[in-house]
Amino acid sequence: MDYNNIIVEIGEGILQITIDRPSKLNALNKETIAELHEAFADAKEDEEAKVVILTGSGEKAFVAGADISEFSDYSPEEGKQLAAEGQQKLFDYVANFPKPVIAAINGFALGGGLELALAAHFRIASDNAKMGLPEVSLGVIPGYGGTQRLPQIVGKGRAMEMIMTAGMIDANQALQYNLVNHVTEQPELLNFAENLAEKIMKNSLVAISSAIKAINANFEAGVNGFETEIEEFGRCFGTEDFEEGTSAFLKKRKADFPGK
Ligand code: COA
């Protein structure tokens, strides 16, 4: 598949999606959001793709936000539509993606860029990364899930401060905030992400899908996550992966999960 704004590469189970509009610091215009949706939808069906690594091209930016030039003349109704469509097509889609999604933040992750990283299942960053939700400095608020996911991850007070000040935090502060799980030197970032992906791929990806659902249920309004956990736990017992995982353990050999 040919894309204008992203690069999609696959190797040994790892699908790397690189947002590639370096002249605009990888800002998310509508076309990029549509391409990302398509790449994720393809990855869902692609049996070769086990884990997704999402990153930005170059050393300067992961994604410097939604493309401001596209929405500066929008009406309230168009603004609402922009947020609703983006959330449904990309941000919620990534958050609920059945395969692990790791955001490898290689530089600025601002506004929609940080929101995209927040939608990923977890984040790692290079030591030059800078993160923030600067929307109020533009007279708007985060619209791609940032007001919901940032406080879930860093806590309400820190999210309030980050959003109100529109400031940026560096990678080490992000680590302290639990916004990212690890910080690496810039050249090591993708290797580090790949090592994590390899560790993940040794386990049952079917069980991991269930775990993603159950963990996400904790953050869904009106959903009892414990009930989701019970459902998903039960579902695992009917899978070939469960049969393989338990019998491999009992026979003292390494499991070789069929992924079913
Ligand atoms: N939307 C559209 N274009 C963007 C962009 C965005 N969110 N972020 C950066 N760009 C563009 C710039 O307009 C510039 O394009 P140009 O060369 O055609 O003028 C190019 O990317 C390079 O950015 P520039 O501002 O020159 O780089 P810098 O190193 O001086 O500053 C930032 C980097 C990230 C601090 C600065 O680009 C910035 O503040 N970006 C906007 C961040 C933001 O508010 N995001 C939230 C959007 S809701």
TrEMBL record:
Superkingdom to which the source organism belongs: Bacteria
Record-linked InterPro entries: ClpP/crotonase-like_dom_sf, Enoyl-CoA_hyd/isom_CS, Enoyl-CoA_hydra/iso
CDD domains: crotonase-like
Cited Pfam families: ECH_1 (PF00378)
PROSITE patterns: ENOYL_COA_HYDRATASE
Family to which the UniProt record says this protein belongs: Belongs to the enoyl-CoA hydratase/isomerase family.
Name listed for the protein in its UniProt record: Enoyl-CoA hydratase-related protein
Source organism per UniProt: Autumnicola musiva
Lineage: Bacteria, Pseudomonadati, Bacteroidota, Flavobacteriia, Flavobacteriales
